[in-house]
Specification:
alpha+beta, Jelly Rolls, 8-stranded antiparallel β-sheet, 3-stranded antiparallel β-sheet, 17 strands, globular, ROXA-like_wH, metal-binding, NO66-like
Length: 377
């Protein structure tokens, strides 16, 4: 596990989503699992999401993959970035397990970048938390200001780069060092010689999306017969007025309607959407394929790197979410489900145990048909 210079409690209370933290030797025995050549090979695949950022004569250029070998021969500082490398390389997916103190449903992906000497993507900020793990070589990180919606950007058609970078700190990272950067904090990484960096990104759902889903759930339960109730009537002194008390009553009734929607489905289904098979192997199978596998015996099950799986207890049941869908099962499944989420694996005896539980085959079939599990028959 990632070795913090402060306690986990202090990190979550004082740094997480608040301020940057340098974590020297965060992974002391880290051996970068992807070389620059291997990263370039992934970037040449049509299914990979890759970019090259070039700084030529102080002008920023962006190129999108897939790339060919000649795209990696450049005479200016440049950076190759490949998204979702954890979906391609199991050893990169393992890096996600180094941060177990952050809820698993918050993780997005592990992006890997390569840069030659002076290579950079420019001064920018992200809308998500990120742990920047240094792989091969050395990278210098400059930390700047907190950026709000009004922060001026360069006039660039493709890149969201800051027009002004106000440096507040600077760190030099070697292999195994980590820099945590909260959302909207400006940062600027510059390679000192050839280097690779592993960016572990944690995204949060937009409040607008959460509100939309919760509202949709409330609308389904309200029906068309539920009407606005007038506040305590009182004579109107001004004809035609929509009174403040009417507006406040409507607002209160809407809040109460949303609060009465207690099912966790609206959130669980939203945050597990996006098993993005466009950028990795399609592990989802049909109901018939899942039933056949479960009937013929399974040696072990492994959580797919791209899988988004979470669960919650609600009104005596266990709700399981995967691939934007949900299933309610008995809480007797909880120990095995926690084992799967913790170790990413269920052994053959554990699979047999789950199949012996009531609705256990249904739960396994649910995860298989949502592309969440890889099977060894």
């Amino acid at each position: 596990m990632l070795s913090l210079p402060v306690s986990t409690e202090v990190f979550l209370a004082e740094y997480w989503q608040r301020k940057p933290l340098l974590i020297p030797g965060g992974l002391t025995a880290f051996s970068p699992p992807v070389s620059a050549e291997e990263l370039a090979g992934i970037a040449m695949e049509p299914e990979a999401e890759s970019r090259i950022v070039v700084n030529r004569n102080s002008q920023w250029q962006l190129h999108h993959g897939p790339f060919s070998a000649r795209d990696f021969n450049r005479d200016s500082p440049w950076t190759l970035l490949v998204q979702r490398v954890d979906h391609w390389v199991p050893e990169v997916a393992d890096i996600r397990r180094e941060v177990p103190f952050i809820p698993g449903w918050r993780i997005d992906d592990v992006m890997v970048s390569y840069a030659n000497d002076g290579g950079s993507v420019g001064p920018h900020f992200d809308n998500y938390d990120v742990f920047l793990l240094q792989g091969d070589g050395v990278r210098r990180w400059k930390i700047g200001q907190y950026c709000d919606e009004a922060e001026p950007l360069l006039d660039h058609p493709d890149l969201l780069l800051l027009a002004e970078f106000r440096q507040e700190d600077e760190f030099v990272l070697n292999c195994g060092d980590i820099l945590y950067v909260p959302p909207r904090v400006a940062h600027w990484g510059i390679a000192e010689g050839d280097c690779t960096t592993y960016s572990i990104g944690f995204r949060a759902p937009r409040l607008a999306d959460l509100l939309s889903r919760r509202t949709d759930a409330a609308l389904e339960s309200l029906g068309n017969a539920t009407l606005f109730k007038d506040p305590v009537p009182r004579p109107s002194a001004r004809p035609g007025e929509l009174s403040r008390s009417d507006i406040e009553a409507a607002t209160t009734q809407l809040i109460n309607a949303l609060a009465q929607q207690q099912s966790p489905q609206w959130m669980g289904e939203l945050i597990t959407e996006g098993i993005d098979t466009e950028h990795g192997p399609d592990g989802a199978m049909s109901d018939e394929e899942a039933a056949s596998l479960l009937g013929n015996g399974i040696t072990s099950l492994t959580l797919q790197p791209e899988a988004r799986v979470c669960w919650t207890e609600h009104e005596g049941s266990l709700w399981v979410f995967a691939g934007g869908d949900s299933l309610s099962v008995s809480k007797t499944h909880l120990p095995l489900l926690m084992e799967l989420c913790d170790t990413w694996t269920l052994s053959s005896p554990q699979v047999e145990e789950m199949q012996s539980l009531e609705a256990g085959p249904n739960l396994l079939a649910f995860l298989l048909t949502r592309g969440a599990l890889d099977v060894e028959a």
